[in-house]
C-alpha cells in the first residue's frame, strides 16, 4: 500500500497546468504578498532573497556496493559548503516522501523522483538549510546536505524484489544510508566539530532509525544530535476502527526487510512492525534528540485518523483538509489523537538532554519552510520560534532542554499565517505526491 506524501517543498518545480497560463504565478504572488505583509518587507525584497538552486550529486561507486534506488539508479544528495565559523559544522537532512510496502506501489514509485535519481532535479534550500542568517540564525553557515529519498522504506531496507514489468526492484535504503555517510565523511565531515542529523516526515522517521548509528561514526568529543520533524507517526485506530498506519508499516517491514536497523531490545519483546514506530524507537535512542511535531499534524489527520474510505461519504472531507472546518464532534476525535501523541512522547520527556517543540498548528514538516522555521509568521512556544528553540537546545544557551507542548487547538494565535504560507508554498512550489 502506498501513501501519497503531500509535501516535498524542497524540490523546485515550475509546473503550469495546460490551459491555465497564470495558475502558478498568481498564487506565488499571493504568497510573497503575505510574506511581505507580515515581515514589513516589500515583495521585491522577498524575490531578491530567493535561495539559489543546489545541484544534484550522484554517490560515486554506489552501484558497485548495491546502494541503489528502487530502479537501480545511483542515490543522490545536494551539498552546500559551509563557511566562516560554520566550516566544520554539518547538517545532514533526510528527505521525506511516504513509503511503499507492496510490489505494485514500489513499481509505480520507481518511475518518480522518490524511486529513481533519473527524475531528480536541482533543489532550493529553505528553512533549516537556508544560507542567510536572518532566516536561519544558528545554522546558516554550516555545511548542509539534503539526502534524496528513493528507497521507499525510510533508508532502512535491504532486499530485492521484482516489479510488475518483470524488472528488478531494489530495496536498498540501508546501503544508501551507509554509502552517503561514507562519501560525506570523505568530503570533510570526518573532521566535523559538531553535526546534526535531521529529516522531515518519512525522513524524520529515518532520523530516529539512524540517530545512534550517526553518533557512532564520530569521536565521542564531537557534538552530535538529532532532529526528527513531523516524523512521530502513531499506531492509532482510524475512523473505521482499523489500524491503517500499522498495515502500511507492516507491508514496508515485510517487503523491504528493515529488521537490521531496528533496536535489538525492542525486537526481543515485540515484532518488527511495532518496533518501526517512533514510540518504540525513542526508548532505545541514547543520542540527544529534539522532536518537532504538530499535535494536529495534517498528514496524519489525513492518512492515520481519517484516511479515504474510513468514513461514509464526504463527512470528513472538509475537516481533514482544513481543521478550521471541523465540527465539535470531529474536534473531539482530533483532541483524542493529540492526547495519544502526548502520551507516547512521555519517554522523550523523561530524557534529560532531549527537547520537544510540539505545537498545535495544522502543519507538517515545519523545519523545511522559512515561514514556519524562523520568520515573523513562525509558530511560537514560550515566545520562541522553532529555529530559536532548536538553536538554544543544540548550542546549550539555556539551562535544561526546552520541552514545550502546546495547548489544544485553536489556542495558539501564532499558528494561522504559517499554516497558510506553508500550504501555498507546498501547492505551488512543488508537490511530492505519488
From TrEMBL:
Entry-linked InterPro entries: AB_hydrolase_fold, PAE/NOTUM
UniProt subcellular location: Secreted, Cell wall
Example GO BP: cell wall organization
GO molecular function, one term: hydrolase activity
Signal sequence, renumbered to the chain: 1-46
EC number(s) recorded for this UniProt protein: 3.1.1.-
SUPFAM superfamilies hit by this protein: alpha/beta-Hydrolases (SSF53474)
Protein keywords: Cell wall, Cell wall biogenesis/degradation, Hydrolase, Secreted, Signal
Residue ranges of the TM segments: none
Family from the record: Belongs to the pectinacetylesterase family.
UniProt xrefs under PANTHER family: NOTUM-RELATED, PECTIN ACETYLESTERASE
The protein's role, per its UniProt record: Hydrolyzes acetyl esters in homogalacturonan regions of pectin. In type I primary cell wall, galacturonic acid residues of pectin can be acetylated at the O-2 and O-3 positions. Decreasing the degree of acetylation of pectin gels in vitro alters their physical properties.
Protein name per the record: Pectin acetylesterase
Amino acid at each position: 500500500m502506498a501513501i501519497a506524501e503531500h509535501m516535498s517543498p524542497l524540490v523546485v518545480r515550475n509546473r503550469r497546468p495546460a490551459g491555465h497560463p497564470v495558475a502558478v504565478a498568481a498564487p506565488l504572488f499571493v504568497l510573497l504578498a503575505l510574506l511581505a505583509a507580515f515581515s514589513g518587507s516589500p515583495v521585491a525584497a522577498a524575490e531578491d532573497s530567493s535561495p539559489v538552486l543546489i545541484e544534484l550529486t550522484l554517490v560515486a561507486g554506489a552501484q558497485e556496493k548495491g546502494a541503489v534506488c528502487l530502479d537501480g539508479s545511483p542515490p543522490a544528495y545536494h551539498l552546500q559548503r559551509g563557511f566562516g565559523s560554520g566550516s566544520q559544522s554539518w547538517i545532514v537532512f533526510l528527505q521525506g516522501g511516504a513509503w511503499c510496502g507492496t510490489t505494485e506501489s514500489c513499481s509505480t514509485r520507481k518511475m518518480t523522483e522518490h524511486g529513481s535519481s533519473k527524475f531528480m532535479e536541482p533543489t532550493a534550500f529553505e528553512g533549516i538549510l537556508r544560507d542567510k542568517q536572518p532566516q536561519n540564525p544558528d545554522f546558516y553557515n554550516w555545511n548542509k546536505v539534503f539526502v534524496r529519498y528513493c528507497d521507499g522504506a525510510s533508508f532502512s531496507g535491504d532486499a530485492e524484489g521484482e516489479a510488475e514489468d518483470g524488472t528488478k526492484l531494489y530495496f536498498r535504503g540501508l546501503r544508501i544510508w551507509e554509502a552517503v555517510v561514507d562519501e560525506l565523511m570523505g568530503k570533510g565531515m570526518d573532521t566535523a566539530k559538531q553535526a546534526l542529523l535531521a529529516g522531515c516526515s518519512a525522513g524524520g522517521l529515518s532520523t530516529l532509525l539512524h540517530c545512534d548509528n550517526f553518533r557512532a561514526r564520530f569521536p565521542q568529543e564531537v557534538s552530535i544530535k538529532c532532529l526528527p520533524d513531523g516524523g512521530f507517526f502513531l499506531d492509532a485506530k482510524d475512523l473505521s476502527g482499523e489500524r491503517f498506519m500499522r498495515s502500511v508499516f507492516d507491508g514496508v517491514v515485510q517487503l523491504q526487510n528493515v529488521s537490521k536497523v531496528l533496536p535489538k531490545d525492542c525486537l526481543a519483546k515485540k515484532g518488527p512492525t511495532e518496533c518501526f514506530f517512533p514510540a518504540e524507537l525513542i526508548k532505545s535512542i541514547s543520542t540527544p534528540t529534539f522532536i518537532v511535531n504538530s499535535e494536529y499534524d495534517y498528514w496524519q489527520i489525513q492518512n492515520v485518523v481519517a484516511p479515504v474510505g474510513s468514513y461514509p461519504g464526504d463527512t470528513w472531507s472538509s475537516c481533514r483538509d482544513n481543521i478550521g472546518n471541523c465540527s465539535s464532534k470531529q474536534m473531539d476525535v482530533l483532541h483524542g489523537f493529540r492526547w495519544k501523541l502526548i502520551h507516547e512522547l512521555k519517554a522523550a520527556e523523561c530524557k534529560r538532554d532531549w527537547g520537544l517543540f510540539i505545537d498545535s498548528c495544522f502543519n507538517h514538516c515545519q523545519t523545511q519552510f522559512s515561514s514556519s522555521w524562523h520568520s515573523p509568521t513562525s509558530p511560537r512556544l514560550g515566545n520562541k520560534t522553532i529555529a530559536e528553540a532548536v538553536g538554544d537546545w543544540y548550542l546549550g544557551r539555556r539551562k535544561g532542554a526546552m520541552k514545550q507542548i502546546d495547548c489544544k487547538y485553536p489556542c495558539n494565535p501564532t499558528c494561522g499565517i504559517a499554516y497558510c504560507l506553508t500550504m501555498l508554498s507546498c501547492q505551488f512550489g512543488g508537490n511530492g505526491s505519488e
